[in-house]
Design a protein that fits this description.
Rossmann fold; four-stranded antiparallel beta sheet; six-stranded mixed beta sheet
């Protein structure tokens, strides 16, 4: 197993925005980490990459085992040898991820120079090769451009190239299609899928778009309000969601032939970490909730195919 996250909890100050999260993936697999904004997806990415201190957070419990090594107890100096080199990170917004006063080539070159020890000329040759593989035309000329001279889709390809430059085994892509138009989104997702299959990488794809998950993911972990709602193979999840929240997300996917105004939505919003309700955190928005959902906390489980839902509500999700 390339990555195994077990019972991961995160604290920021006196609050715990992430509780008992578990999932796993292997080489050649794509795991979709899904949920609405505020569910804890990006926080999970920061925990896996050891970047929580940047926002004043820390891992309070659990393990993040990468290729047999638990990353949680490692000092920052050791974590730096994993970030960039073995774990690549595609940040959420390509518009702000690049340094506006540095040329594109230099921003990609530095990754392979730092992590692979390449000389400047070899690093530039590798950068051109990466940009070409990501279908960037005239890659050598693009290396001399500044970020403001590129489109949003082109910038996203550059950010992916930076994540690949260290030859990582795992890529974490945090909403890699944010702010891109639909056509470019499809191109980026297709490129990421090809990279996983061709290079044998593991990919954690963070998104709120269940349509994207259905297209490319092998496994899915569904988060809601800092807890794991459900984790299982993608085909099984879409065929028979075990948690009402998962079913509600799937119902939000537009389909061919739908009557105007028939698209479903989920009432309300994800609660703030300061206002998490007692019992099941989804129960105020759940059409299948019972009285016990407001008082009893569902048992979180790392077992694939199981849902953190009380039996009566879980049955309703499949009904």
């Amino acid at each position: 197993m390339l990555l195994s996250v077990s019972n991961l909890s995160v604290r920021i100050g006196s609050v715990e925005p992430l509780s008992n999260i578990s999932f796993a993936l292997d080489r050649g697999e794509i795991l979709g980490l899904v949920g609405e904004s505020g569910s804890g997806k990006s926080l999970t990415a920061l925990a896996v990459t050891g970047l929580l201190p940047l926002i004043g957070g820390r891992i309070s419990a659990g393990e993040v085992v990468f290729d047999g090594t638990d990353l949680v107890p490692l000092p920052e100096a050791r974590l730096r040898s994993y970030r960039g080199r073995r774990i690549g990170f595609v940040t959420q917004n390509p518009m702000t991820a690049l340094d506006p006063v540095q040329r594109i080539g230099g921003q990609v070159d530095v990754v392979s120079r730092l992590h692979l020890g390449l000389a400047p000329s070899a690093a530039r040759a590798r950068t051109v090769e990466l940009l070409t593989s990501l279908r960037i035309p005239e890659a050598a000329a693009i290396c001399d451009a500044y970020p403001h001279q590129l489109s949003g889709g082109m910038k996203q390809r550059i950010v992916i190239a930076m994540a690949l430059a260290g030859e990582p085994d795992l890529i974490i892509a945090d909403e890699p299609t944010t702010a891109l138009d639909v056509t470019v989104q499809a191109q980026i997702i297709h490129i990421l899928g090809e990279l996983v299959r061709e290079r044998g990488l593991g990919l954690v794809l963070i998104t709120h778009d269940m349509g994207v998950v259905a297209q490319v993911c092998d496994r899915v972990a569904v988060l809601y309000a800092g807890r794991l709602a459900e984790t299982r193979d993608a085909a099984a999840l879409f065929a028979a969601p075990a948690h009402p929240y998962t079913a509600a997300l799937i119902d939000c996917i537009p389909r061919d032939g739908m009557a105007p105004g028939s698209l479903s939505g989920i009432p309300g919003t994800v609660p703030s970490v300061l206002t998490y309700p007692a019992g099941c955190r989804f129960h105020p928005r759940c059409a299948s909730a019972t009285a016990e959902c407001a008082t009893q906390t569902p048992r979180n489980t790392p077992l694939p195919g199981a849902a953190a839902c009380l039996p009566s509500s879980a049955g309703a999700a499949n009904g």
